[in-house]
Design brief:
By secondary structure, the protein is an alpha/beta fold. It has 13 helices and 13 strands.
């Protein structure tokens, strides 16, 4: 399902749908408070680092988790990941086996991260963290779960997509927010604002509370793939496909068609055949994201060029400080 367009309008332009849903917002808040009061958070014997956001949908959480795993790799500690496994059917706790598990079982993001560290998918986050600790994890990174009260977090990092920020500033279902902005930012030990310079400037103008956030960009990984001047037909089923299409344009690709799909979209064989047929008819290269690629049949992946991106903070010092001082996780990054 796609989020309604009015969610992402400026607060002053949210319109009548947001006002009409105001009573339902009160019910959402009541349920969130009830869950929090009823929860008995599991306190793990190892540091738990949570990467989350304040809105529904993608904001760059998984790329930041990947960047953190690479950053922590030099520490020598066994770092495991706990993910809900969005798009997968396994309830878990289940340790992801990249050689045997499919995206339909564990989700696309969990499969991607499993190339970097042991990953556990678990609908019950507390059970997932327990399983990771039982398997020898010296630290756990949670991909999402900032609002989930079942696990005590030692360090919480909030990711904000600068292109959308907090949308109309209203709570679900009147807007995209899972909780009020002031409450969420107050609980965060660090905030990462992801986007190009112009996007970050607009987000800071509209949301002054983001002042002090760590600036970061999604940067294409250099693979030698020739894109400059090449006709490409791009498709993406991620949180905001427009970000991927913008990346291709910055690389100089001539996009003859850009096709957005819902986040975690499945690709039936008939859809893939149509995409390939249209790309060949246009003399274009079929291009997609790394996250989409893990959802494609192995035989079809040979027909598609994959553009990988990595998240690069402009300055790691604030994040390093949060990891060291709040989570007690000492890094060896000389």
């Amino acid at each position: 399902m796609r989020a309604p367009a009015f969610w992402w309008r400026a607060p002053e332009g949210a319109g009548w749908p947001a006002r009409l849903l105001a009573p339902a917002v009160a019910l959402w808040r009541m349920e969130a408070r009830r869950r929090k009061r009823a929860a008995e958070p599991y306190r793990a014997p190892v540091p738990v680092i949570c990467v989350g956001n304040l809105t529904v949908g993608g904001a760059g959480k998984t790329p930041l988790v990947a960047a953190l795993l690479q950053r922590l790799d030099g520490s020598g500690a066994a770092v495991h990941v706990v993910s809900r496994g969005h798009g997968g059917r396994l309830a878990g706790p289940h340790r992801v086996d990249p050689g045997r598990d499919s995206h339909g079982e564990v989700g696309d993001e969990a499969l991607m991260l499993a190339a970097l560290a042991p990953v556990w998918v678990a609908r019950d986050r507390g059970a997932g963290v327990r399983a990771a600790v039982g398997a020898g994890a010296a630290a756990v990174v949670m991909d999402d779960g900032f609002q989930n009260p079942s696990v005590a977090k030692d360090c919480s990092i909030v990711v904000v997509d600068a292109g959308q920020a907090f949308g109309n500033g209203r709570l679900i279902p009147a807007g995209p927010l899972r909780e009020p902005v002031p409450e969420g930012l107050a609980r965060a030990h660090a905030v990462v604002l992801v986007g190009e310079n112009a996007e970050r400037e607009r987000a800071l103008t509209r949301w002054p509370a983001l002042a002090g956030a760590v600036a970061a960009r999604l940067v294409p990984v250099e693979t030698g793939l020739p894109l400059a001047g090449e006709p490409v037909m791009a498709f993406a089923g991620i949180g905001r496909p427009e970000k991927f299409f913008a990346t291709l344009r910055r690389l100089g690709a001539d996009i003859v068609q850009a096709i957005p799909f819902p986040d975690h979209a499945a690709y039936p064989a008939a859809v893939l055949r149509r995409l390939l047929r249209e790309a060949r008819a246009r003399g274009a290269m079929l291009v997609t994201t790394e996250k989409d690629a893990v959802r494609l049949p192995a035989a079809f992946r040979r027909e598609v060029a994959v553009v990988q991106v990595r998240l690069e903070p402009e300055d790691w010092s604030a994040l390093d400080r949060a990891l060291a001082e709040v989570a007690g996780f000492r890094l060896n990054l000389d």
